[in-house]
Amino acid sequence: MARKITVWFEQQAFGVCEWWGNKLGIKSTNIRMYFIYLSFFTVGSPIIVYFIMAFILEHKNYLKPNKSKRSSIWDI
Fold first, then answer.
1. Which of 33, 34, 61, 35 is nearest to 50 (CA)?
2. Which H or E run includes 12?
3. What is residue 68's DSSP assignment?
4. Do 57 and 14 touch, CB atoms closer than 8 A?
């Protein structure tokens, strides 16, 4: 039962911890635990940072223009 909850949460949780884990070479579960610990010690401010990072990850394709997609050969 606990494994099902963990898998469901990992699929639904925006992928911020997984992304940071891949970038830094750290397990995503360790990063999640740090977020939880910091949230307790700093009265929830890391949660705000987490949601900002989730927003950026969800919309990174719209925030950074992709120069490789051209509609024609004359677009330079």
1. 35
2. helix 2-12
3. T
4. yes
Closest listed residue to residue 52, CA positions, set 40, 43, 60, 62: 60
Question: Under 8 Å CB-to-CB from 30, ≥6 apart: which residues?
Answer: 21
pTM: 0.54
Helix/strand/coil (H/E/C) assignment for every residue in 36-61? HHHHHHCCCHHHHHHHHHHHHHHCHH
**Digit-coded pLDDT (tens) for 9-38:** 666 666 788 888 888 898 888 888 888 888
Token pair of 37 as six digits = 């610990």
Contacts of 3 (CB under 8 A, 6+ apart): none
Name the residue with tokens 């705000």.
48
